[in-house]
Amino acid sequence: MNEPTTEERALRTRVLLLLLFAYVFNFIDRNIVGVLAVPIRDEFNLSDTALSQLGIAFGIFYALIAIPIAWAADRKSRVHIIAGAVALWSLFTATCGMVQNYTQLVVARMGVAVGEAGGIAPSYSLISDYFPREKRSRALAFYSLGIPIGSALGVFFGGWLAAHLSWRSAFIIVGLLGLPAALLIKLLIPEPQRGRFDAATPVAAPPGREVARALFGNPSFWLLSFGAASGSILGYGLIFWLPSFFNRSFGLSIEDVGWFYGSIVLVGGALGTWLGGWLGDRLGAERPGGYALIPAICFLITAPTFALGLFAPNLWVAWLLFTVGQMLALAWLGPVITAVQHIVIPSMRATASASFLFVNNLIGIAFGIYFLGWFSDAMKAAHGSDSLRYSILYGLVFYLLAAVFYLFAAARLRKDIKS
């Protein structure tokens, strides 16, 4: 393949940076609620189970709306859809700061979910048409840096704004700050030809029934999806509940939680996301099973690392263990997302990504956040204020389950990857 020109490299860089910029705000707006859960719980006098309804509402609406939006993205302008999604989730995040009761907050978070559902799968598809196969895992991993960066900034600024202003001000400020990203994407990203770097001749998007048959009959799709979902039960559950854990079990104030946990998410998450993408390109190009083997190994180490962190003797040891655990827990992003792009033809990529995210988010966000909250309440009689610690500890089994799914996927991927 010919080397890209200077102009092509500049365009790729611009596209990736703008999509990353939007993705950062996606995860600021999505995960800021974790650190704000502390004052929200106090103001509305909520149990952990009741507070977890924010995750259920978000996860269900996100999962249900993502597939029809992605179906449209396989047929219409992905750039316009992404720009509209960014504007929508930003406005609904700001709306969260204007609510007068907890029910209104749950409804506003549903609106955030609808917007965010339209941003990620079309972005995966867009990036796959800007980068050739041998560079996709790194490109998608770079885009996925929006997860640790956005999550960390959400914890940083959410904690600081809640401490110095209010949790409502935090929602309003970060929501409005995301609006410029929508305009920049619409004006500065051109829509590329679909499948331009793939061996097969690009074809029009097939009917939805054909896409469904292709996905439902693909074992790798289900193994990758359930592997990601099992890991995300803890991934989303921890980003929501660890701020409360550090507040209750380590005695940190909400502002201190912002700096402490935010640095864990930023350092560990960024290192793990980039490392996973680099390993994915190194191993997956020649051995497709490597796309799944990387996260399988990482998750097997993640569970005991987090378990040790939960019972760390001091904050320094806790920071180190949680940072290593965070690094390993996010190494799946680049290789697994790349594998999902490769198991379907280019004109199915947005829908395949949304279907993958449907499974991942419906189980990961809706169930993960609820499970840890419900389990924490259930163990209050036995463990008192430490119930959340044990809820997280027992929940780490889902990381081991994710490793099992990925090990099976590693054995299957060679058969299902499209040439």
Automatic annotation (TrEMBL):
The chain crosses the membrane at residues 15-38, 50-72, 79-100, 106-127, 139-163, 169-189, 221-246, 258-279, 291-312, 318-340, 352-372, 392-411. It is found in: Membrane. It is a multi-pass membrane protein. Its main location: membrane. Residues 15-414 form the Major facilitator superfamily (MFS) profile domain. SUPFAM superfamilies: MFS general substrate transporter. Gene3D superfamilies: MFS general substrate transporter like domains. It comes from Sphingomonas telluris. This is MFS transporter. Keywords: Membrane, Transmembrane, Transmembrane helix, Transport.
